[in-house]
Amino acid sequence: MKDISESDLQNNIPLVCRQDYKREVIAGNVEIGGKELTHMAGPCTVESRDQILETAKAVKEAGATMLRGGVFKPLTFPYGDPLGQPDAGAKGTGLDRNVVMTLPEMFKAAEKRLAYLREAGEKYGLAVVSEITYASSIDMMTDYVDMFQIGYRHMFNMDLIEVLAKTAKPLLIKRHYGESLRSLLGVCEHFEARGKHNFAICERGVSVAHTHNVDSRAILDIQAIPALKEYAPSVPVIIDPSHATFKRKYVAAMSRAAIAAGADGLLIEVHPDPEQAWVDPLQALGFSDFSNLVSELDGIRNVITP
Is 168 contained in some domain? Predict the structure, then answer.
């Protein structure tokens, strides 16, 4: 059963679906789910110190309040892992097909990029959000991030649920493209039941049998926004139009639709040279496109919530 029933509300997800609950989700100095939109922006992958500093400066000037950057990247295939890339210069070739980094090597490479991310956030006054994929990395990452992102692949990762329930820092929980809102709220309830309340939900598209585009990886579930506001009104809803569309020219339209539908903010990929991004070059926005989009989104928000 995928639909949320009255029995679910009473027995399975009663905590996350409280109607009169006041939830506080603050990352660094950024309130998520408040009166202002939360613009989380930055590259899918932290490639170098210069890249993330340049991006942080641009997104801050455009109106972003949070810097996103991937360090631990659970890619579909093992080749081209960004942690195996050279630290700077031209786009690299990634991991040798016969070499896989050990976990200590991966953590060492990741910490260097996390330090770049933290430096950029502090320099430009941006709270930092990044994905966690290994429960054992939480102590290291805590020193560098203001918010932990749980990627869609790890929505039901119980090791992560257990360790993240104990951290004071807020969470951004991404919905898997094949999971219902009932299952997503079930994950949230796992945190609630463990005393963890400061989290937001991220919608990043659902899998469908047919689309308008053979290259589409998902369809953005705009209807999930009012549905989540109905069932779990205290939980902020963030939309990821970049991964949902997988197509640069669609990102702005889906972002506008999401804010008009009542989303609390967006998680958008922004890169100095989008077509040369190491990961997902088809969907990242350039600096000027992101700046124009933020102005449009703030205007839409002002119309629907004057």
Answer: yes
Number of domains forming the structure of the chain: 1
What is the rounded distance in angstroms from the CA atom of residue 258 to the CA atom of residue 243? 14
147 membership: H or E segment, kind and range:
strand 147-150
Phi, psi of 210, deg, nearest 5? -135, 145
Distance of alpha carbon 234 from alpha carbon 106, whole angstroms: 37
Percent of the chain with pLDDT strictly greater than 90: 74
pLDDT for the residue numbered 9: 95
**Residue bearing the bigger pLDDT, 78 or 143:** 143
CA dihedral 12, 16, 18, 23 (to 10 degrees): 170
Please report whether residue 139 resides in a domain. yes
Supply the range of the domain harboring residue 34: 24-304
Establish if 5 belongs to a structural domain. Answer: no
User: Considering Cα of 60, then 119, then 117, then 28, what sign does the dihedral take?
Assistant: negative
Q: What is the full DSSP assignment across 67-109?
A: EE--SS---SSSTT-GGGS-SSSS----S-TT----HHHHHHH
Q: What is the pLDDT of residues 83-128, one digit of tens each?
A: 655 443 334 334 444 456 778 888 888 899 999 999 999 999 999 9
